[in-house]
Amino acid sequence: KLEMEGKTLELTRKHYGITSPISLAQPKEADLVLTQKLIETLRPFGVFEEELELQRRILVLGKLNTLVQVWIREISQAKNIPSSVIDNVCGKIFTFGSYRLGVHTKGADIDALCVAPRHLERSDFFSSFYEKLKEQEEVKDLRVGSFVPVIKLSFDGIEIDILFARLALQTIPENLDLRDDGLLKNLDIRCIRSLNGCRVTDEILHLVPNIENFRLTLRAIKLWAKRHNIYSNILGFLGGVSWAMLVARTCQLYPNAVASTLVHKFFLVFSKWEWPNPVLLKQPEDCNLNLPVWDPRVTPSDRYHLMPIITPAYPQQNSTYNVSTSTRAIMVEEFKRGLAITDEILLNKAEWSKLFEAPNFFQKYKHYIVLLASAQTEKQHLEWVGLVESKIRILVGNLEKNEFITLAHVNPQSFPGPKEESENTIWVIGVVFKKMEGPENLNVDLTFDIQSFTDTVYRQAITSKMFEADMKITAMHVKRKQLQQLLPKVAIQRSKRKASVHLLFLDDTKPDNVGNSSSNAVRKGAAPLKQPTSPVQHDSEKKPEVDSVQQNPHPSPCLSAGPASKSPASPLGNETSEKAKVEEVRQRSHVECFLKFYFQHCVNFVFYTLFNPVLHSVHD
């Protein structure tokens, strides 16, 4: 009896995480009722998948796993592996990400990892296995990732991304636990990176006290983050694994709480968290494999991370290194709002639906910067958009450093641009300028901020040999009321007072310098921008107050952050003649701008060829 009591006592003392829990309180009846209401509120958003669809995913993964087994045996025979070994050799498909965590939504893709024995090469995966997938009738849209070594495909209508890793094993056991740090010995860094997703996901599931409560809470938090435009690792917010670790830490601090309580505690904990103190799910371990890990005591650059959330699997990394001053401020503010709303919900003064109401991003700010990425073909456009999006956080960082800007908020959602002769995609960045004393206008120079961003994109495209002459970046400053003319109607809830303003991308040829943005130039003390002669129409037949930045190779454009200055009204001519004038301007400047652009790229190419080793290290 004493022995049993001792075991019971030991269980009650056990805790998850690096600290003791804040509360061990058991859920009350009201908490269970609120949790059920939360589930009912989540259902219409499609965060739960039907059982039939889940079974179809399991079936597809089973077929894919069988295909891997057949492929490995064929390659083993081709490499003259002994028959006795071939009979026992096998590989395996593992999953990670939202599917492995059990929080995937309807239509979501599956992140998978193909683990193979030591005699298979990475080149085999991207050659012979790729060809084998081609032969399958269920496989559609087969392709290799442009920037990440991954095979992407649609298998029987389910999107799957497959990474590859080979282990220093003769065969892959069916019960293999990828959390074993010993598996990392004698592996190249590419395989370690590929294994990291599965290892982190499995560790998270082993570090939460109640998996079902964790999953329901994570579904709610992920939906809330997406609805509030703060779900995107690549743009400087948090990605899926980071949100999962924050929810997991909340579960560790309140191990007996149900989802309704955990959602509230999530906002309570992280609205008051003293960043940049790191969020850790377990004490970091050193496996003596000499792999780089997040450690600000050793690595000086780690000291500058603003919102560190550390992965629990070795080698420990900061999953939020993209977070900037603006994105952290935006997320902390959203945490505080979430806390206020959940306070009301727990007091029965509001419903769960209020937490998931999407704020109108396009009414939130007075000033916006609109980025347009365009390419001639759909394939080029897909690659170009991926590159541009991966670098937008650089532009946000540049804007933050401007002394007259307090906040830059990029909307993670992109939109189709105006249909012309090329494929277009638009991103929108909300900008908050510092309030200046005095009534005079303040003209803020954004030339360097935006041009350095476009320079980086173009150079990266050239270095990776993906650049084509028709790939372009256009940027402009617009005010709130003008967004409705640039974006699809479904994206913007129009305000009661509507202004009909037609903004054109007048000159989308390349500028004088590499990547000089279509826009951007703004000089302190310069005269307010006058719009180029273009069709402009306003309700009162007068040109509206517009402070914008557009590409214009002749005058120096200005972005006004202070009171708007009225521009003279443009005479309205025949629509056909106006279009002809616009085309004439574009044709006239095309040859000159393209030659200058081409010459600058030649200079850059020679420069990078000579000094590439030094510059590459700086770029990294």
Description:
- The strands form three sheets. Strands 1-2-5-4-3 form a five-stranded mixed beta sheet, with helices on both faces. Strands 6, 7, 8, 9 and 11 form a five-stranded antiparallel beta sheet that branches.
- Mean pLDDT is 79; it is low at 1-12, 494-601 and 603-620.
- The protein has 620 residues and is an alpha+beta fold.
- It has 15 helices and twelve strands.
- 40% of the residues lie in helices and 12% in strands.
- The longest helix is centred in the last third of the chain and has 45 residues, at 575-619.
Topology:
Elements: H1 2-13, H2 29-42, H3 51-78, H4 83-86, E1 92-96, H5 97-101, E2 110-116, H6 122-134, E3 139-144, E4 151-155, E5 158-166, H7 189-206, H8 211-227, H9 240-253, H10 259-271, H11 325-346, H12 361-364, E6 367-375, H13 378-401, E7 405-410, E8 415-416, E9 423-433, E10 443-444, H14 447-463, E11 472-479, E12 559-560, H15 575-619
Parallel strand pairs: 2-5
Antiparallel strand pairs: 1-2, 3-4, 4-5, 6-9, 6-11, 7-9, 8-9, 10-12
Give the total of beta strands: 12
Which structural class matches the secondary elements?
alpha+beta
Mean pLDDT: 79
Any guess at the CATH architecture of the domain at 51-203? 2-Layer Sandwich
- Helix and strand element order: HHHHEHEHEEEHHHHHHEHEEEEHEEH
CATH classification class of the domain at 51-203: Alpha Beta
| Structure annotation, total helices | 15
User: CATH homologous superfamily name of the domain at 51-203?
Assistant: Beta Polymerase, domain 2
Poorly predicted runs are: 1-12, 494-601, 603-620
Compute the gyration radius: what is it?
Answer: 27 Å
What is the strand content? 5-15%
Q: Into which percent range does the helicity of residues fall?
A: 40-55%
Shape call:
globular
CATH fold assignment of the domain at 51-203:
Beta Polymerase, domain 2
Reported for the largest beta sheet, the result is:
5 strands, mixed
Measured between the Cα atoms of the first and last residue, the distance is 62 Å
Strand numbers in spatial order across the main sheet: 1-2-5-4-3
